[in-house]
Amino acid sequence: MGLCVSSSRNSSSEVDSQRYSTTDATDLTSAGNRTERPTRSSRGVLEGLRTLSTPVNVSHHGLARRGAQLTLRMQPLEEYQSARTHQDHFIKDRSGSLFPRVRIERAMDQAAYHPYRFELDRTATVKVAGFNGLTPNTQNTSHLYSTGTSQPNTLVVTDNMTACIAIACAAENIEPATGDRLPGAKVRVFHLLPFAHEELMPDEVLMSIRNYLEETMREGLTVRAAMHGGDTQGDMSISTAVALRNLLWQLDVALEFDETCERRATNTPLGAVIRDDHSVQFVTQIVAAED
């Protein structure tokens, strides 16, 4: 949720478009890997969206290039729709949020080992969590500041937190007797404007996160979390970090790492991905081997 600014007086019009736009990059997905056009059964969903006065944004992105830099680009709507499992369901329109520019590094430029590294190829789908900095929050706005998946090898990520704080949630289906990871894992990433922005009703956001964690644990999944972002000086973000830490403590959710506010030494993306073995890995470095 939220525009990543350190003052509640800032508005979305003041945000640097070079840091947040994900719609004007060159797609690197090869033509042979593109999905087919939507089936007839999904046409009604698409036609209804085309009548809207504003463009529809979706969380699904792919590897792209902007000049000499690698980044992510939002999938075209028809490509996104054709890849959906339930094509007749409503599409979550995220045009009320703003997507961050996610940093992608070249594998050749990075050290061989990084504990939270994810290698991205040009055929992969990445789900990006955007910001909600304009709409007062209710129980129906969580799609504007979070996204998740239960699909293996689909990275869910956000970036450019500055004063904002991101929290990534990893939920694994662990066999109690053996500790083995079983199918059924899921992940979700939230991008939160500092709770000092009371006009956006941050209590609704905290309740949304609590509900998600409680519902996930009721499903029998083991949850852990990671956090990143927030101002390193001043108190703009501290209350948000404290509220999230307290919530995780109350629910007995393990915090794998906390890189927020006074504990923050770097500026990285934050994400999570389900691996082939059904385990979940947090991600703070994304690399792509690009020729």
UniProtKB/TrEMBL annotation:
NCBIfam families: XopAF (NF041401)
Region feature Disordered, mapped onto this chain: 1-42
Stretches with biased composition (Low complexity): 1-15
Composition-biased stretches (Polar residues): 18-33
Protein name (Swiss-Prot/TrEMBL): Type III effector
